[in-house]
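Please go through this chain and its backbone structure tokens and walk me through the local backbone shapes. Keep your notes short.
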Amino acid sequence: MDPMAQVIAAGRPGLPPEAVQAMCRFGQALLEKNQVMNLTAITDPAQVGRLHFLDSLTLLDLADFRGKQVIDVGCGGGFPGVPLKIACPEMELTLLDSLGKRMDWLAQILPGLGVEARCVTARAEEAVAGCRESYDFAVSRAVARLNVLCELCLPYVQVGGTFLAMKGAAAQAEVEQARGAIRRLGGEVEQLAAFPQVGQEHAVVVIRKIRPTPAQFPRRFAKIKQQPL
């Protein structure tokens, strides 16, 4: 078994072997494409297994995605959405990112892996106009601070749904800074779940959508960046 497969299988012993194989095929394709396109700074296969795949799969411990509409906002190279879809094929997945080359690559590679996903090339603050409050879950590993990320993601989530924001060591500080913004956007922090990795601190902020997001949000990104909530 190759190093990526060993890491994934050991970290998620309940995953079917075919799911582990599909993730490894995707990871290998990612590393190959990374030679000509900036998809990841992590190039060691075992570390890809740990810091991309196992990290993404921590969301399975916090939510049941079966039969749900899920959008991955700012998906980049396909994380966390693609590993989640492989592990839980019953979900309906939309991948959203503004970089067309990445999305074109995902749209080309995923069908061959048996991964069904809608790939949308658009800015998050613009794409929401056609699907506002229509998803059960929004997920994101984007690098924006939580108050900015919530304005981009919570408008996609229906009332009663959940936004799962994957963060690093500063998660608690970001939650405290973003509490007012989260309330204004119709959300409520439900949980801050820590998932320590070797040499890393990872956490997931679980935000429940308790009322509709006011119509004026999200604003244009220049305004969000200039005057974050």
